[in-house]
Design a protein that fits this description.
Number of domains: 1
Shape: globular
Strand order of the largest sheet: 1-2-3-9-10-11
Strand content: 35-45%
Distance between the termini: 17 Å
Radius of gyration: 16 Å
Order of helices and strands: HEHEEEEHHHEEEEEE
Largest sheet: 6 strands, antiparallel
């Protein structure tokens, strides 16, 4: 079972900080899935690496999802043969919507962080925008996300699926 309180305490380190970077890291060959990286704070002090579903909302509208990587910027499905190309991300809807998100959050800071019983994470910004991280599969050992301070040697808090449940482990 996920230690919700401990995870939420760790994630509260980003309260009051700006989202300074949003980037897509193609790692399918290494990790079995691509990673979205969110860095928070001056000199990128904290990092959240996400392999599960991510959604950003503002004023009741979805403005970005991690599934946007599979669509072109004109909102059409990206042909499979194009998805495997090296510059596919630059043509993806995720490339466009992540830039729009960063502009939306330019002057905003994290106001609250909430962790649900199922390890969903909701990061709310002071302008009302939200980023939601939602574990979305039941594959043994699958890593949904990890959170850590970027200082060398800091502990990584990893949420993954083990023994038919979500678990939080430190490494």
């Amino acid at each position: 079972m996920v230690d919700k309180k401990n995870l939420e305490n760790r994630l509260n380190d980003i309260v009051g900080l700006k989202l300074t970077e949003f980037y897509f890291q193609p790692t399918e060959e290494v990790l079995g899935g691509n990673v979205i990286v969110l860095n928070f704070g001056d000199k990128n002090r904290f990092s959240l690496h996400i392999q599960c579903f991510l959604r950003a909302t503002f004023n009741g509208k979805i403005i970005l999802t991690s599934s946007d990587e599979f669509f072109l910027q004109n909102y059409q499905k990206m042909p499979l043969e194009e998805y495997d190309e090296q510059n596919a991300y630059d043509r993806s809807l995720l490339s466009k919507t992540s830039k729009e998100l960063m502009i939306l959050l330019e002057q905003s800071v994290v106001e609250t962080v909430f962790v649900s019983e199922t390890a969903d994470v909701v990061i709310t910004f002071n302008n009302g925008a939200k980023i939601e991280v939602i574990p979305d599969c039941l594959s043994e050992g699958y890593e949904y996300y990890r959170f850590f301070n970027l200082k060398k040697g800091s502990i990584h808090y990893i949420v993954n699926f083990r023994g038919k449940e979500l678990v939080l482990r430190k490494c």
